TrEMBL record:
<dbReference type="InterPro" id="IPR050902">
    <property type="entry name" value="ABC_Transporter_SBP"/>
</dbReference>
<feature type="domain" description="Fe/B12 periplasmic-binding">
    <location>
        <begin position="41"/>
        <end position="325"/>
    </location>
</feature>
<dbReference type="InterPro" id="IPR002491">
    <property type="entry name" value="ABC_transptr_periplasmic_BD"/>
</dbReference>
<keyword id="KW-0732">Signal</keyword>
<feature type="signal peptide">
    <location>
        <begin position="1"/>
        <end position="21"/>
    </location>
</feature>
<dbReference type="Pfam" id="PF01497">
    <property type="entry name" value="Peripla_BP_2"/>
</dbReference>
<protein>
    <submittedName>
        <fullName>ABC transporter substrate-binding protein</fullName>
    </submittedName>
</protein>
Amino acid sequence: MKKSSLLLLVLLLPALLFAQAAAESSMLNSDYYMATDANNRTLKLEKKPSHLLIAGKAGNMPANALFLFEEVQSMDLTLPKTDQGLGDFFAFIRPDLDQKPRISQTAGAEEIASRNSDLVLMKATHFESTAKKLDQLGIPNYTMNLESYEDWKAELSELGKLLKNTSRAQQLIQLYETRVKFITDRVASLKPQDKKTVLLLQAERSDAAYAYKIAPDSWMQTWMVETAGAIPVWKGSNKAANGWSTVSFEQIAAWNPDLVILLSYKDASDIYLKAVQTSELWSLLDAFKQGNVKASPHDMMNYIQPVASWILGLQWLAKEAYPALFADVDMEYEVQRFYQEFYNIHDRAKLDVLLDLYRTSVASNTL
């Protein structure tokens, strides 16, 4: 950078910071609650939302973001079914939610409108099918994408504006950034020839048959492997339009990865690991011989997906790929710290439940 450009930046920086602070102060002192959603619509509410409905499939993702803010504790909430099969995390935090019927994930705009909520929160993928119709009905609604690290940072910032709690939003973003930087700083020292090859497989079963799928290149699961300093061997192989793509065992064997991670978003991951451990076919893989086929970690939600606990999945992946490099990382401590700092859970009994679920999810990895 030229000296003149650097000097100009130094001179302008205080003015830019002042303008940003002034804009935030103006927003916080205004009579409105306003933010821009994932579909680039600016929502302007006259009062802070207190009766909120989360609609549609993948409702656990916007719910995850909302529950990071303390305002959720006093909100009248209506949720869709958010249990992925591992437990209901939101009712775990707020047991009173069990007393309120859930709305169907496939509920239409008219049914959603009939609930008379202050605000409807949903995934951006429901924009065409639901959000537009709610706009026509005059129902305030807000969409979130939350599919990438950049989405999480940008959309937490906007959600903080909508709730007029920008300080909490910035705190959350900093918590994520600090944890990610800890990992990227460590793996930056890896030479190309020292990087591990990793294969993430979503496992499914039907009767006695098992199927394995790979994620698209653009999805967070792929980004997590790369950010952990490893090489996702499947990258470039998913030809599906937008979703997981089934792969054969022959292809898995051809990739011959250093580390295989088995994922499941509906069952406990160790179910699939136990099946692999008794498989003559899988026993031929180098990763199997070296004990490097692993069940992915979870408590009430799998960590290796774009929910708030993705940062735990990233930390776990980095430690599994490079145990010596991350020998000082205690995952049980990180799980507890995550729920204390991100969800403000300090009740010992609740933390123990989450820790026990995590321990159980990865127990088979040491057998």
